[in-house]
UniProtKB/TrEMBL annotation:
Signal sequence region: none
Domain DUF2264 intervals: 23-382, 390-661
Protein's name in the database: DUF2264 domain protein
Organism expressing this protein natively: Lentinula boryana
């Protein structure tokens, strides 16, 4: 068999050979990432320049990102008793970056300045590793750092998770006894951040009216910040710290459902360029709940079924997933790329600089725990058996998570970004998001191939010149009963087109299927409406690494390839099986295996999508579409194609009787 040549990367080969199971091994991997940054670092260490792409903020702030974000890992390594022989680069950078007389000065803070974001990493570093990064500095340097960090205390900040960055600036300054620490400002910010809390451990990323609950509500910002604060401020603020720990206990029992047994997290929302920061909650939880330094009488118990071995497994499997199986996440020298599984600028927000991906270093917070800690001495455990083959309603996030049949994903309605963000319809508006298959983003807005329309109902009203998908969701809510619930929502792709969508999770009888129901109503009889509903987009190459061919044995074959006919379409590759079936009462849509444009899907750069297509032109008459979507990822650790799934494919999911009755009344 002809194989494509892949030039070996010394960095990736070393990462793959590292088991990443012990503290020493994880520290070694972090050190290799830090080493890779050295050639890109300015002479006095304050700026790291990793590329020439732009952001909405200035270039100096972008290079500050490159400097500050790796500190999440470096400071944790030092705090846990480890060492890094080039730590002086960052110590020097702290001094020169905050010195107004230095050529590498970062610049003073202004209102809503990107520099504020980077204060959280620096404040954390001062809090946990001041002995290495603060104590050796001159008094002048300490005054400059205090002035620079304290300069944000009288500035306007976005009313979001950003307020945590000022909390950590003041926390860090207080830990090193800088006179620029503002305890009153910190407590006011903490009181306001508490207004974001909505119950059961969950916080939204902003005030009342904000609806998105993405990874900023968990591993990227809020939950991690609460956990770190609960550890670092226990003596000064015990009641608040206890509150944060209790929130984390509740949240952990939900958040674990966003991870699969292989260590992958469900791809959802913005800023996925941060990659393994998606798992940072587990590192922060371990840091906050560890009692290896003695029992201070505080309750640090973990909620069942979580154990120290479970937490360790969740965190380290995620790091191993990136280090061992995703070479495209790093360039050949070991620099994190702008993308997800591979370099992909279609994914990026306008605030993603070449240094932005190093937010991923939050996953290394577990290194702040010493070798003899409960986390590092625990035997790593697999994903809890009691949580496998389960479905869980996330009432605050308006999502339903499931891992029935071995596929971890969520159904979603009601999530949307409260401000303009690139590709928001793809990041928040899709019907389903998977840990294995990921989601796709458009590379343009014209053809269906450019759209990357997985897990959505794409609508065209101009002869398929352009396509629209669900972006803003109205009236989202749960329906059903205690035994089974589903999501219902309204959306309006055009002023004269109303779509109501129901999303029904899988059942034990048909664990690899979920159902979607759409009621479409058009008010304009002159409009011809084209629809294309997509399943999961998956890897689209065959074993010979050429494009998948149509299977020869029709719908009876488990062979890799594509299959499409009236009412169904299916794709089989080394990634798994993804298919879609039309179960509509009055219409039959045409199945198609669509090769989407390259670099649309975040996991597979060359992807194929199973779709159902049709056209309608009916005024004031409900058009009912009922869709079954099938998905089975193949285990990445297996070297052979899984077989035996045809039996599940031949089954058909059954609508809840309430929805069946609603359709029958049409």
């Amino acid at each position: 068999m002809t194989k494509a040549f892949t030039a070996p990367s010394l960095f990736h080969e070393r990462a793959r050979s590292n088991p990443l199971r012990s503290r020493t091994e994880v520290a070694s991997f972090l050190a290799s990432m830090l080493d890779a940054l050295e050639p890109h670092t300015s002479p006095d260490g304050a700026r790291i320049h990793l590329g020439y792409t732009a952001t909405h903020f200035d270039e100096v702030a972008a290079q500050l990102e490159g400097f500050s974000r790796p500190i999440w890992g470096l400071a944790s390594l030092l705090a846990g008793g480890g060492s890094y022989n080039r730590a002086s680069r960052w110590r020097s950078g702290l001094a020169s970056g905050t010195d107004p007389e230095s050529e590498e000065f970062w610049g003073n803070m202004r209102d809503k300045d990107q520099r504020m974001v980077e204060c959280s990493a620096i404040g954390y570093a001062l809090s946990v590793a001041g002995h290495e990064l603060w104590d050796p500095l001159s008094e002048t340097a300490k005054i400059n750092i205090g002035n620079w960090l304290g300069g944000m205390n009288d500035k306007e900040m976005p009313n979001t998770n950003w307020l945590w960055f000022r909390v950590f600036a003041n926390l860090g300054l207080s830990k090193v006894e800088s006179p620029r620490a503002d305890a009153q400002r910190m407590q006011a910010d903490l009181d306001h951040l508490d207004t974001f809390y909505i119950g059961d451990g969950w916080s939204r990323d902003g005030p009342d009216g904000i609806v998105q609950l993405d990874y900023y509500s968990s591993s990227f910002a809020i939950q991690v910040a609460q956990l770190l604060y609960s550890k670092l401020a226990q003596k000064e603020d015990p009641k608040r710290c206890e509150k944060f720990r209790n929130r984390a206990r509740m949240f952990a029992l939900d958040f674990i459902h966003y991870f699969d047994p292989e260590g992958r997290a469900i791809l959802f929302g913005r800023s996925l360029v941060y990659r393994f920061a998606m798992s940072a909650f587990w590192s922060a939880l371990a840091f906050a709940f560890d009692t290896s330094n003695g029992d201070d009488g505080v309750d640090y118990s973990l909620p069942a079924p979580l154990t120290w071995g479970t937490i360790k497994g969740l965190q380290l499997r995620n790091i191993r997933y990136w280090a061992h199986t995703q070479p495209g996440a790093f360039d050949r020298s070991g620099i994190l790329t702008l993308g997800f599984s591979y370099p992909n600028h279609n994914l990026l927000e306008n605030y993603n600089s070449p240094g932005s991906p190093y937010w991923a270093c939050k996953a290394f917070i577990c290194l702040a725990l010493p070798e003899n800690s409960m986390f590092w001495t625990a035997e790593e455990e697999e994903y809890p058996i009691s949580l496998r083959n389960t479905t869980k309603v996330m009432k605050h996030a308006l999502q339903i998570t499931t891992n029935l049949g071995g596929h971890t994903y969520l159904l979603s309605s009601g999530q949307q970004c409260s401000y303009p963000v690139k590709q928001s319809a793809a990041k928040y508006g899709k019907f389903a998001y998977s840990a294995a298959f990921g989601y796709s983003v458009p590379v343009a807005s014209l053809t269906l191939e450019e759209l990357g329309g997985d897990s959505t109902l794409a609508i065209s009203g101009d002869g398929e010149e352009t396509w629209k998908c669900r972006r803003v969701t109205k009236e989202a809510r749960f329906e059903g009963n205690d035994e089974k619930q589903w999501l219902r929502s309204m959306w309006y792709p055009f002023p004269d087109v109303e779509i109501e969508t129901w999303l029904v999770p899988p059942t034990l009888d048909t664990p690899l299927w979920h159902l979607r129901v759409h009621r479409i109503r058009m008010q304009n009889s002159d409009r011809v409406l084209s629809t294309a509903e997509g399943s999961w987009a998956i890897y689209g190459q065959a074993q010979d690494e050429r494009a998948l061919d149509p299977v020869k044995d029709g719908d009876e074959s488990e062979s890799e390839g594509t299959y499409a006919s009236e009412g169904l379409a299916r794709v089989v590759s080394k990634a798994g099986v993804a298919g879609i079936v039309d179960l509509s009462p009055d219409v039959t849509r045409k199945g198609q295996a669509l090769r989407t444009d390259a670099n649309t899907n975040l996991v597979s750069a060359r992807a194929v999508l199973s779709v159902l297509r049709a056209e309608y032109q009916e005024k004031a008459k409900d058009i009912w579409l009922v869709t079954g979507v099938f998905g089975l990822p193949f285990d990445q650790n297996e070297n052979h194609q899984r077989t035996g799934w045809m039996e599940e494919w031949k089954k058909r999911p059954v609508l809840p009787k309430e929805l069946a009755e609603l359709i029958s009344m049409k």
